[in-house]
Amino acid sequence: MKSFDWKRIWKSGGLVCLTALLLLAAVPRAEASGVREIPLGYNDELTGIKAEMKDGALYVPLRETSNKIHLAVSGTNEKIVLTGSKHRITIVPGAQEAISGGQTAPLKTYVSAGRTMIPASLLKSAFHFGVAYDAGVPVVRITSGKQKLSLQDFVLQNRGTEDGGRGKTEDKPQQQKPVPTKPIYLTFDDGPTAHTGELLDILDKYGARGTFFMLGPNIASYPNAVKRLVQSGNAAGLHGMTHVKSKFYASPASALKEMEQDNAALRSAAGIDTTLIRTPYGSKPYFTEAYRNKMMSAGFHLWDWNVDSEDWKYKTDHNKVIRSVLQQIETVEKQGTVPIVLMHDQPATLKVLPEVLKTLKAEGFTFEVIDGQTTPVNFWHDKR
Ligand SMILES: [Zn+2]
Questions:
Q1: What predicted TM-score, i.e. pTM, was given to this entire model?
Q2: CA–CA separation, 83 vs 370, rounded Å?
Q3: Which one from 239, 243, 301, 344 is the annotated catalytic residue?
Q4: Less Cβ around it within 10 Å: N or C end of the chain?
């Protein structure tokens, strides 16, 4: 398959070439009227994301898909910026345009069930992903080059899961209906403390789990809390030794040293290491490239948050924290982003947690923990 260079497309007259690109991804217009939902695959995985066939072209939900294929989404709903490892484009839904390298070209987008839909072909032309479509299943598959299965095997494999492994049936394969999940990451900083046990009790009660970014000296003080936390399916992360700005951020070497000492404390308390780090007060503005290079080349993954409970600030107004955190989670979730909630391992948080967990559970969220394979989310968009 010929590959297309986005910049060349802009230069050679956006409209004509973009139309040609859209036609590449198009299929016969058997269902020209209306919209048809199509399961989306990424490499060898069938995601729960639904693409749509509209007017003979394939569209994917911008935010869910970007999250899946590791494109960063920033900007506003009026000007959505999509950033890949080498390229960046700005999508302006109101004007039905996209801007890249100072050039503007028409881009058809629309909103479906609150999701901004973009042509799947854009991922190919702008970011060099593969986009393939099998009308027989049907399924659309985006590839980054890391896929192991051919399209045919990918289709066969997913047909296999649909009939429960009983082999081929006479019936036409049914569309797979993945169980919808709404993942959320709860994170707890600054522990462990004398109250970690109570915190873990509350998490257990609601079937929830979290990721704990812990300070080395506290780990040494409460090793049993760390053991319990790890054994009960929560995740351990590092938060350094001093929590003092001038000491932690003194140099890239000082930051690395604190995390390594913290990891040593974790090792002696619970017998494990971790690559997950959260720097004191968050990574902006101090954790600049030199710091990140130092830390990432030692194998660490940097995590910030997108929901700040401010539980450290409002230690008595529990309702304010509950309202604010639930509201922020709803906003982030509506944007198609997985919420990463910053909370603290402290007594005040014990007061807000039951209500927050009860509500999130009722809303269908599943509490996940971060691991070294999860694509890092941080204020620098540094995915190493
Ligand atoms: Zn902290």
A1: 0.57
A2: 23
A3: 344
A4: N
